[in-house]
Write a structure and sequence with these properties.
By secondary structure, the chain is of the alpha+beta class. The chain folds into 2 domains: about 120 residues, Protein Yojf, Chain: A, CATH 2.70.180; about 120 residues, Trna Endonuclease, Chain: A, domain 1 (3-Layer(aba) Sandwich), CATH 3.40.1350. It is built from 6 helices and 13 strands. Helix 3 packs parallel to helix 4.
């Protein structure tokens, strides 16, 4: 980091602090830490009593306030929702914003300011997300020999009455279906594979081989699969993870979804 772009402000004069903060809004990232309370007034009203918090005001005027624990913000405002202004109120540092469209207001009062910095942050890169189950399926489709030598993929996401089969193909023992998991296999995963086999037997009147792919198999799961003539294949997705990248238009929340 270029330290010339990062400035820690002196807290000796709150009058000077207010002046610097107002000139930095929309130009630099503002980082404050201290003891504060917050008030939201709009369609609903909320009060957040005194506590130690971090407040981040980004260059696009988005606001995020965090407490000492957790990943969810205690208060927040979307980018460009409304102007932001700092002022002194009875020797307290006040941040005030009013949302332009809804006229809702957010007020944050710092009674004890511990840290204040201005950062001319710069970042034009985009988030790339990679390594979820759909990526692992795509990788196996491109590298079917990992499933078994000579395996040929016929279709992915093949719909059945009991859910979509990840991979349908032809293996050394004939038609084969493959269910893919990036986490440790569970009894539910094994049972789901069995239900797929039963679907093909009952609805399509054919015998198919079933393979469950996962990075790890507890003893009970592997025993269940073996007892029902199903195959388990250990493929550690963490070893493949660095080789796959998702497109830049992928959404972060999709990365956290589990099947």
């Amino acid at each position: 980091m270029d330290i010339t772009n990062f400035e820690i402000l002196s807290l000796d004069s709150l009058t000077e602090v207010v002046k610097r903060l107002n000139s930095a809004v929309g130009e630099k990232m503002i980082i404050l830490a201290g003891h504060c309370k917050a008030f939201f007034d709009g369609r609903i009203k909320s009060t957040l009593e005194d506590g130690d918090r971090f407040l981040f005001i980004k260059k696009d005027l988005s606001i995020i306030m965090h407490g000492p624990t957790g990943v969810k913000p205690l208060n927040w405002q979307k980018p460009q929702a409304g102007p932001i202004q700092f002022k002194l109120k009875e020797k307290l540092l006040e941040m005030f914003t009013k949302r332009t469209k809804t006229e809702e207001t957010l007020t944050i009062l710092f009674s004890n300011l511990q840290f204040l910095a201005l950062w001319h942050a710069y970042d034009e890169t985009e988030l790339e997300i990679y390594g979820d189950e759909s990526d692992l399926v795509k990788y196996l489709v491109s590298n079917p020999e990992l499933i078994e030598p000579g395996f040929q993929v016929l279709k992915t996401e093949y719909n059945t009455d009991v859910g979509p089969v990840d991979i349908r193909g032809i293996g050394k023992e004939g038609e084969t279906i493959v269910e893919v998991k990036k986490r440790k296999a569970t009894p539910q995963d094994a049972h789901q594979l069995k239900r797929y086999i039963e679907f093909f037997q009952e609805k399509e009147k054919k015998e198919v081989k079933g393979i469950l792919v996962a990075p790890d198999f507890p003893v009970k799961v592997s025993e269940y699969l073996t007892n029902h003539k199903l195959v388990f294949k250990v493929i550690k997705w963490e070893e493949i993870f660095p080789l796959i990248k998702r497109s830049k238009d992928s959404k972060l929340e999709e990365f956290f979804k589990e099947k």
